[in-house]
Every structure is written in structure tokens, then in C-alpha cells.
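I have a small job for you when you get a moment. Would you make up a two-line entry for one protein for me to read? No commentary is needed, just the two lines. Write everything out right here, beneath this request.
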Amino acid sequence: MKEIEWLCQLWGGGGRPLLPVRDGQMPRRYARLLESELVDYVASGIPVATPFRVRQESTWDTPVVLIASGEDLDRWTRPVEVVELADDDPWQPAYAAVLGRLPAAIDQHALDRFFLRKDLTFEELFPVRRVHTEGSLQDLLIRLESNDHVKPRQLSNMNLAAGMEPDRGFMARSPIIPPRFPVRRAAGPNIIVALSPGSVEDVVLLWNLRAAHGDKRVLPIGIPVAELTDQALEELSQPGRATMFGWSGGKCHVTSSSLRHDELVALTARAHGVVVASEEELLTFGSAPGRPGSQVAMWSAGRARLTVSDEDRKTLAPLQQDGACGADVLVDVTVHDRLLPADGMMRGATYAATFRAGAAQADVLRMRRVDPISVAWPPSWTAVAATVHSRGLVAKPSNPGLAAVALLEALGGIEQVWWLSHAPLIDLLYRLGERSGMSWWKKRWATVHKELRELGVDDEKLERAAEELGRDDPAIAPSGEGRDLPLDEFRKALGGKQDAAENWVTWAEQRHLLVRGVQVSCPECNGKSWLPMASLPPPVGCTGCGREIRQPYGAGELKFTYRLGEPLRRVLENDCLGHLIALRWLTELFEGWDLVGVHPGVTFIDPKIGEDVGEADVLLLFANGDLVPVEVKRRVAGADASNATKMDTLADALQAPWDLLAVTQPGRECTGLMEQARGLPQRPRLLLTNDQLHEDYPIWELGKNPFAVGASRDRQADVEREAAFVKAVSKGLLEQPRDRVSPTLLDPSLK
């Protein structure tokens, strides 16, 4: 009760969490919140073990009377109501945690630290009304539903926004991907804490839930166990008291620190529509009380300078006066399209850039002046490496990942990968990059296959062995070698459309995916060589004999051919084109799902043994710190039991809530792939094939599974999709910013 009185006298104290500590230890559920939520430090004179990078220090508490001194007394239209109950009233803890408390006099320590008058009273700054009552649910509800008075908790948060909003988009638990904090999202603020007599943990839980969800609603609320009746639960479940939100949010959830789950079930067995939940499922610290705002910032080398508004300056003015220096006022910065993971490792140091709970921090008050605020932002790879490090692993980009990133830079953005998502074009690119002799290699395989079949070897075993031994794997030529093909080959791959071939080749050439050149012959040694455009002007040297070719070109026009540019060649050499196609699809699907980012090709090393744990072809990182590995296979034959074991090992090491297997073949060709799928309540393993990966814009439709794999899509459907791709290329849409609506608006025929 004394601690609650103290917090209600501090600016922002109504949103400050309390920690239940016994013998220097706190419950593990609180330690997890300290790691992942927006906690600056633990301020306590009690020795307690805190998690990694959660420091303990003395806090410079700002008394709320200092802020109130900046307001004129005649502007207070409502008095602060302090409700006092007898010490033996069983409702006293509930009233204190829900409404707050104020002592008769201002804490002397606060007056001394900020050099305030020793005889200063609350009544000099704002009207105070003290009432004595006997506690009851009806009386508490009347006070919570009335807006005629200011509660002490609300007073502490004056001029600050406090409390979370319920998830307005809540629909129910996802049957596909395990939801994060499903019970907490379903409950929202509709929480009832059963208070056992003398239980400090129950009062702390109620205070923290009220701090997290705010003081503008009836719930969260606490009820003494003896008063937890069916009638009480029914009254609290009424809409208006319970908050209705989303499609299915609104049920009251009953919890307690002191009572077991079965005891709560017995107490609420006859109450309709009430859910029993553990405190661990519901507990959160929420967001700190603050003054939300937004502004445009210019970033340079990961830094930006933000300004403080005039209204904020007015609020902070009392803290800039003599004697007020040292007050703790921080700004928490988030960037709407550049999220950071709320991971324990993403916590900065005192003298460097500071990060907590997915936000960057900076001091607002410096030398008692409100200056522009300098904020630093970490590179995206730092967020990945830090989150992986919290699992005890080290992350480094793999060779395929480096090649994929280089191609993304050449393309200019992830969305541009869509213009490579065309099966005939992909086949042509692999053929363009093959070493000379690949045709001989495959013919030799066919001859051996025939000979072994005549010796009685089973066809199925032969085919399986051929696939496992790499008969169909591409053998990409090294830099400077490889095939060159004329424009006509691209025209054939793009449905015979000349304008589509010209548009696509021009687009690819501008991004260095293709290099245009010409074949020349040496009249001296009859050697042939291929020259890129930049090397065409004479004199031309022969790569075979070194002599100068005086007339390298005939009287007719040059016949240009195309070779792979180095960014695309490296991607094909590392066989990671499928990684990029999967990355593009997943990025667009999870847009707006708190996705921090997607990275191609990450290797994970266990530093204790110095060995690789595994490699993710694509790695997804979400704002809550979840890591999801994706495995991409060119052929379904590679998705065997051995690969499944490797995926499980990596998912275990990353503590992944789910993982994903993608195969760059049509679903109808992926026989046996469904055997790899897993669903809840196990760790889900989701599947993708070209049926999904070659979609224009993936959308997670209501009631549908975007990861559903089957043989229902026939070849004709693929032909129609390929034709739509060619039509878009023919229209020259490659050079336009990709979005979901412009093709339809600009050209209805593309719908």
C-alpha cells in the first residue's frame, strides 16, 4: 500500500510496474517481461537478480506536483477523489490497485529533492476530495464508471497518454501459425483478478494489469475471493463494462497469482462466458505513459534528429527550472516501416545508442534545455545477429545469401524479383548459364540409365539415384564463360511476343542481369570469341592468338546475343534464385504482420563447439523476436527425411514457432510433399510450391490457407498465369512501381 501511495505521487507512476520479490528472486514470468518489454531499468533498494542487460539503479523520480504546478488551479474542473477504506476492509487492496491512493501530505523526500516548499500541500495545486466508504463491488463500479472525479492513478499520468488499446482486428486463434500471446489478445482489458487475503502477488498483478491497460475502463478489476460470485462475474461481463472488440473479443478472463487453475475453475464453473487463464498468459507491462506523436525525419548514416513540439515544451517547462535537473524523461522512437525486434539482446548501453523493446531511446532533457533529439538506428543485419545471439548462436551470411543480396541490390528492391517469377524464363536463364557440355552430360546419363535398365535395375531406383546424385542440378559456368543466346530465345520463352522479349531484355540489361555482345572470328587462327558492348569499338584483339582483328565485323548488321550478368550468374551458380522468389512472396504476404525483415542465406554457428547448426535459405524475423527459417528446394526429391531432420534441428536451435519448406516445382509434380507438412498443436511446417510462389500478389484471405499445397492446379492454369505475366511485360509495366491496384486502374484488360 505504501508503494502504491508513492507511485501515485510520481509523474507517470500509474504506469510503472511493480515486481514481486521474495528472497532476492522474482518469478520467471516477470524476468521475461523485463527482457522483452519497454523497461528502462529496475529502481529498487532491494537486492534482486535481474536478467542480462537489465540494470538496477536509483531513479530520479519526478513528483506529479511539479507538473501540476504548471497548471492554473482554476482550470481544474474535477476534483481528485481519494477513497479511503478501513485497514481491515477486504476490498482495500482492490481499491488501492484500481483507483490508486494519496497520503494526507506530499512525500517529504520528493519535496526535498526538488527544492519545493516543505509546507506545500496537494490542495494548493488541485482540488482534493477525500471520502471514507465501505468497500463493495457496486461501490467500486460506480466510482470506475463515473467521470466526475479524477482518480489518483489518473492524476499521476496527467498530460500523458497511458494504457494499451485492445486488438481491434482480433478474430480468433489462427489454425495455421501459432499466434503470439493468444490469451492476452483475446482478453484485452477484460481481466478479473481474484484477490486472496494478504497476497502481495495478487495486488501486484492487479496493479500491473491496470497500468498496462489504462484507467479509462472498468476492467481490469480485482475482487476478493470471497466476493467472486456468479452474479459478480455476470455484472462485470456486461458490454460497456467488458470491452467488446474485434470479431470475438469481449469475454472476461479470471486469473490469480495465489489460486491454482483448478480452484479458479471451481469458483467460475457456473458463470457463463467466463474464461479462466493463468497470470503468465495475461501479464504484460504494456507501454510506458507518454506523449505520442509523429514526425518526418531525415536519416543519414543511421542517425536522425527529432524536434520537441511546443506543447511538449510547455509540459516539460517545470522540469527545466533550477533544482529540477536530472529528471528522467526519455523519448522512445519507432519507425513504422523499419521495425526492430523486441529481443533481450536488443538493449543498448548507457553511453551508446540505446534500444529497448523494439524502440530506440534518447534523453529529452539535457542541461535543462529541450534540444533536438539525436536518435540512432541499427543496421538490419545487427537486428538479425542480435536476435540469433540471444539463442546462443552466431549468424553469418552464407555464400548463397551474399549472392542473393547482390542481385537484390542490382534489381533495386525485393518487389522487382517478381519479374523473374516466370517458369519458362527461369528455365532459359539456367540454360543460358550452363557450362558447355551439359547436353553431353545429360545424354551420357540417359545412356547409362538405359544400360542399367537392361541389366535389370528397377526404374524407380534408377530415377531416385539420378536425382539424388545431381543429374538435374544446374552446372553454371564460371565468370567469363557460358552460353550466349539471341533475342529470339527470349521471345520463345515469353510466349512468342517480340515486344515482351525486347522489354524484358532491356529491363534486365539496365540492371546488369544480362550483358549484350557479339561473336567475332579471327581470320588468322579461326578462333571465336564473344565481346560485350563496351569492347566492340576497334581495335579488337583475338583471345586465341593475340593478333589484332582488323575487320571484326562483317558488312551486314551486328547480330547481338546475350550472356548472364555477374549478379545473376552468381545467383544461379549458388542455386539461390528460388530463395529470392520465396523471399519476395513471403515479404508481400506478411506485410503488415509486424515483419522486421527477411534475409536470404544465413548460416548459424554454435560457438561452444565451433560447428554449423544449419543454414536457412531464407530467414524471417518478426517484431516479437521470433525467428522462422525457410528451406528452399529446386526439386521435391531433395525434400526427403534427411532434409526434414536438418530442418527440425535448426528450428529447435532457433526456438522457431514454425518453419517452412518451399519447392520450386508445380504442386502437381510434388508427389509426397504433403507428408512433410505439420500442423498445430505441433510446431507447424508450412509448404510452398510454384503454385503460390509465382502468384502476382499473395494475400492471406479470410478463412483460407495461403500455404495449402495440392495437385488441383493443372497445367492450363499455369499457362494462363504465364500469359498474364507476358502481357504485363509487353505493356512495359516493368518500369513502373509495382503495386496491387495500378495495373487494373491503368489498363483494365490486365485484370
In short: The radius of gyration is 33 Å. The chain has 26 helices and 25 strands. The first strand starts at residue 80 and ends at 84.
